[in-house]
Every structure is written in structure tokens, then in C-alpha cells.
């Protein structure tokens, strides 16, 4: 298995990935980092139309730069396992990917930078209206709740500083409806909510951020 992985990855990944490189090209061994193994349940879209996260069937979310998404999908399609080396937030089940491979004994591919997903400006997309049941909160890399993942994989993000005021709508099992600018396509569906509520007919504007103390 080691030989097969070592032969396949050098051919496929350089064509797909500009933001990562083979571990052998770096001065440190990424496998010294904590490792997390899981099965890909789905890839998660962002409101800009790309993908920058995946959801493990076992529960945790894994965050990576959007330009790495094609290579990660190549290594681990939905339903397949993946090993991720990286760091886990203290307060939430979210992992920032720094390297990945299809198996622990395969040659890892190194992500060349941290990805904090800090930009939550309204995207120049179309207005989407969504509703469903919350599968899980949606986390920033540092562990803050910033939205929700619905059962169908739709990602509802909230503007910076506004999630706490709507925390009851973002819990697993909650009914959630939202409207806002976003994208829908092969990567999935995601939006940055400007209105939110339990039902489509009862939406209200997203509460403004709490004043700084």
C-alpha cells in the first residue's frame, strides 16, 4: 500500500494543487503533528462558490484553503477515509488542515499556510432562501460558532459578531430558515444570512453585533 500511494500522489496532486506540496520538499515532517482520521460525509460550500471545509461522518469539521479543495477531493471522495494532520480548536470539533493523505502510510501532501476563514463579507452572488433542520453548528477555525450546517449540507453563515444572539437557532436539531447572498452549484449551497428565523414566513433581520466591552 505504501508503494502504490507513493506512485499515485506525485502524478495527480501537482496538477490539482498550487497551494500545497509534497512533504519531502519541506524541512520538517508533517506527520509529527497530531493526526485525525475520518470518513468524508460531505464537502461544504462557502458563499463565494468554492469549498473550504469537509465534514467527517464521525462529527468533526476540517478546514482548508479553497485552492486545496480539488486535491483533497481527489484523495478522498465522499464516502472515503482520509488522514489529516493539523491542529484542533480547544473548544470545538474543528480541525485546521496542514497536511493530508489517503492513509497513514501514504506520502502526505502539505498545505502551505494556515487558513482562518476570516473574510465574511457579503459575496456578489444571488439571493438564496433556505430552510431545514440544523445538522451541526458551523465553526471558524478557532472554534467560534459562526453559522449552521443543515441536514442537506447547506451552510448558513452569519456576519461577524452576530452568531451569539441567534445561538438557539444554530443548535443541532433546531429548525432554521435564512435568506441572504450566496451561491448554489456543484460545490453545494451556502449563504451569508441577512435575515434568519425558525420558519421562512417568520424571518427577521440578523441582529447587529454586540457592542465591544
How would you explain this protein's 3D organization?
With 213 residues, the chain is mainly beta. The chain contains 2 helices and 13 strands, in the order αββββαβββββββββ. The strands form 2 sheets. Strands 2-3-4-6-5 form a 5-stranded mixed barrel. Strand 8 and strand 9 form a beta hairpin. Helix 1 runs antiparallel to helix 2. The termini are far apart. The N terminus is likely disordered.
Topology:
Layout: H1 2-16, E1 20-22, E2 35-45, E3 51-56, E4 61-63, H2 69-75, E5 81-88, E6 94-101, E7 109-111, E8 126-139, E9 145-150, E10 155-157, E11 175-185, E12 188-197, E13 204-205
Parallel strand pairs: 4-6, 10-12
Antiparallel strand pairs: 1-7, 2-3, 2-5, 3-4, 5-6, 6-7, 8-9, 8-11, 9-10, 11-12, 12-13
Helix pairs in contact: 1-2
List keywords for this structure.
213 residues; mainly beta; OB fold (Dihydrolipoamide Acetyltransferase, E2P); 2 domains; five-stranded mixed beta barrel; elongated; disordered N terminus
Amino acid at each position: 500500500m505504501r508503494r502504490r500511494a507513493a506512485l499515485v500522489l506525485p502524478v495527480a496532486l501537482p496538477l490539482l494543487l498550487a497551494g500545497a506540496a509534497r512533504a519531502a520538499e519541506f524541512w520538517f515532517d508533517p506527520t509529527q503533528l497530531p493526526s485525525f482520521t475520518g470518513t468524508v460525509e460531505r464537502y461544504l460550500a462557502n458563499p463565494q462558490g468554492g469549498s473550504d471545509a469537509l465534514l467527517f461522518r464521525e462529527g468533526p469539521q476540517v478546514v482548508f484553503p479553497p485552492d486545496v479543495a480539488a486535491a483533497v477531493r481527489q484523495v478522498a471522495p465522499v464516502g472515503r477515509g482520509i488522514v489529516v494532520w493539523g491542529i484542533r480548536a480547544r473548544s470545538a470539533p474543528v480541525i485546521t488542515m496542514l497536511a493530508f493523505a489517503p492513509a497513514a502510510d501514504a506520502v502526505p501532501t502539505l498545505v502551505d499556510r494556515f487558513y482562518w476563514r476570516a473574510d465574511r463579507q457579503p459575496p456578489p452572488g444571488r439571493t438564496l432562501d433556505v430552510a431545514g433542520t440544523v445538522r451541526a453548528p458551523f465553526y471558524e477555525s478557532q472554534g467560534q460558532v459562526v453559522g449552521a450546517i443543515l441536514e442537506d449540507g447547506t451552510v448558513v453563515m452569519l456576519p461577524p459578531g452576530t452568531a451569539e444572539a441567534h445561538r438557539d437557532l444554530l443548535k443541532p436539531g433546531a429548525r432554521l430558515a435564512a435568506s441572504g447572498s450566496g451561491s448554489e452549484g456543484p460545490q453545494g449551497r451556502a449563504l451569508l444570512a441577512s435575515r434568519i428565523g425558525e420558519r421562512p414566513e417568520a424571518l427577521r433581520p440578523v441582529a447587529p453585533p454586540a457592542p465591544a466591552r
